[in-house]
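Problem statement: downstream parser choked on a complex file, so we are re-checking the raw output for the pyridoxal-5'-phosphate run. The parser issue turned out to be on our end (a line-ending mismatch), but while we're here, posting the original submission so the record is complete.
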Amino acid sequence: MNIEQIRSDISNYGNKIFLNSAGSSLMAKSVVQKIEQYLHQEERSGGYKLVELREEDISDFYHQAATLIGANPKNIAFTHDATDAYIKALSSINFKNGDVIITTDDDYASNQIQFISLQRRFDISIIKIKTLQNGDLDISHFQELLEKYTPKLVAVTHVPTNSGLIQNVEAIGKICKEQQVLFLVDACQSVGQLNVDVQEIKCDFLTTTGRKFLRGPRGTGFLYVSDKALEKGYYPLFIDGGGAIWSQENQFEILQSAKRYETWEKPYALLIGLSEALRYANEIGMEGIVSYNKKLMTRLRENLAGLNGVRIFDNGSRTCNILTFRKEGKSLEEIEKVFDSNNVYFSDSQKEWGVIDFDKKGIDWAIRLSPHYFNTLAEMDKVSEIIERM
Ligand SMILES: Cc1ncc(COP(=O)(O)O)c(C=O)c1O
């Protein structure tokens, strides 16, 4: 991996230390150029004509997304963000009173809100898989739950928003496949930073966003739908003319591919931008990205673990490029001030985004640093010194 080249592909990186790829990362120049170019063409030819003219580039998006996660283009739907993908997947499941959803303590806040909302309408039960002392999922407890309940859905967030934990979606997926239980994975924080392979995870649905570790534009995401789910005829409850054809007065026919999960209207310029971000990641290769990211995080975690008064909050036998910490005696505002004055881009995680996890940890906020492959080891050292001095 040519880090210098990768850094020069970013406009005006300057002397900032950008550590917020878990929030909204930095796009490569080529991503922005593709969007601008598309918009300028749209300005001249109008949106509908341009879709015809750029048909090949538009369909390349499905190819790039599929390549990144080990799928086929027909299993990919463009969505407006990860939550849009998640809602569409959830809405395609025919929940009835008494159904059970099995999920985890570390599932994303909006997913938890949606489960509770479903519970209010359908009186479903939401059951959580226990976590082990080290933060990993208790897989034998999951097996017990499967024997006890016959869940309609198992839903697991691969990497939560508020810590560097990696949940063992491969183990859960293997069991779900054996038991023929529907499996939905929120891979919003993992696609682009970790190897995410739907053949290994064996999920029915997988959701992600464009703007985070994928380095795409805001307002984009995609949904993977397995062959099995397509063949079984799942489709979103509020399907539109992009996903189905109104064939007779009281009849519609769904599309064969995962495009049945799309709405007709799309921000094509942004889709083209996301496609370029995917192409960029595919060209560098996830193997290189994953191994370089590991080096960055090992350095940062070791540096911070050695500092007096710094408490790191990431559990789990496997962690990734999200590090959450607090420094004894320092308020959020004080840390913010020091980072801002040193040009460190970061974010904070508030309890409302991880209620169960933060309750277990006894905190209501943490600083979140999320380096990505355009960062350097020197930046990891510099930010560690800034934290030591603050
Ligand atoms: C784990 C996880 N899932 C889902 C989302 C929602 O993503 P979006 O805002 O693109 O809908 C986030 C956003 O932070 C997230 O961290």
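For whoever reads this later: The mean pLDDT is 97.
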